[in-house]
Amino acid sequence: MLRASGRKSLTAMTLTASATELSEILHALLGHFDEFLVRNPVLSFDVPAECFLEGLLSRAWQAWGEFCRACVIKSCLGTSRRSGALVPRIHQALSENHVSAAAIFAKRHGRTPTWAEENSNLRLEPTWGDPDILSRIIINLNPSNSRQLLASFSNSHAISKNVQTIRNGCAHNHHQNMSEILGIRSSYIVQPITHPTHALFWIEPNSNEYFFKYAVQALISASNDVIL
């Protein structure tokens, strides 16, 4: 069963703990997706099916964003990697709210923050799972493991961007977002779609997996690379 999500204090958690939590959530979602396939051996989409699939995709995107956020905040406040190597705290980073404000500044201005502000309004935070925004934040906050973070998140850039594109199409279903979804179809074996959730069943040609299964497995793999 997929447990309820909720934002936790990050100060006492390691990068490995965050990757483990992400893996548990995403594997649970894969289980629900497999159950959907068993119930629908001949794929057909009614409104309840589309709502169910939209929920799965949204939960996966939320979990990935939470993981990206945790990696940045923990790396700035001090943590450890899977190897046991320590990631020392950035001297100016005094709390989760300090890092939150610094990330907002880095996203908006594209330069090193002053670290003078705190933020407690989560609505103001950036879209952590967006790889372009994430790289800008990591570069400008510059934790000691920034090279590892940048390299690992760079490897997952394409798949996380595609997940974001389809998820945004579900959240804001109009012809322009649908056009963006169709813009990624050259990477997959596709069939015509009339709703963004139908793209979850495009086939990734190298793995021969449905897009959703391939994407979730790729994000799990990426999270393991991030924490090395």
Keywords:
single chain, 228 residues, mainly alpha, two-stranded antiparallel ribbon, 8 helices, 4% strand, elongated
Can you give me a brief rundown of this structure?
Helices cover 57% and strands 4% of the residues. The chain has 228 residues and is mainly alpha-helical.
Written account of the structure:
The protein is mainly alpha-helical and 228 residues long. The protein has a domain at 21-86 and 145-226. It has eight helices and four strands; from the N terminus they run H-H-E-E-H-H-H-H-H-E-E-H. The strands form two sheets. It has a two-stranded antiparallel sheet. It has a two-stranded antiparallel sheet with strand order 3-4. Helix 2 (47-77) packs across helix 6.
Sheet with the most strands: spatial strand order: 1-2
Question: Sheet with the most strands?
Answer: 2 strands, antiparallel
Q: Element order, helices and strands? A: HHEEHHHHHEEH
Indicate the percent of residues in helices: 55-70%
Shape: elongated
Mean pLDDT: 94
Low-confidence stretches: none
Number of helices: 8
- Computed structural class: mainly alpha
Q: Provide the β-strand percentage band.
A: under 5%
C-alpha termini separation: 29 Å
Rg measurement, Å: 18 Å
Give the strand tally. Answer: 4
